[in-house]
Write a structure and sequence with these properties.
The protein is α+β, with helices and mostly antiparallel strands. The protein has helices at about 10-25, 50-55, and strands at about 1-5, 30-35, 40-45, 60-65. InterPro entries: HMA_dom, HMA_dom_sf.
Length: about 70
Amino acid sequence: MLEFKVEGMTCVSCASIISKAIRTVDPSVSVDVKIPEQTVQVKSNRPEQELIRLIEESGYPVLGTKQIS
């Protein structure tokens, strides 16, 4: 599972936009958005760079990524 630190996520609408963007390429993905921490946890077989691109194209800069268990 990857965790992305995302800038500018402040509301449920932001979380929904990001989740929908990721689900366009992987409908079975597991996405957990934590607004207070401004993180998005994604369990997907899609490449990390593709997930970053999808988040950033939604209007939210990715500040960092880490692998979590």
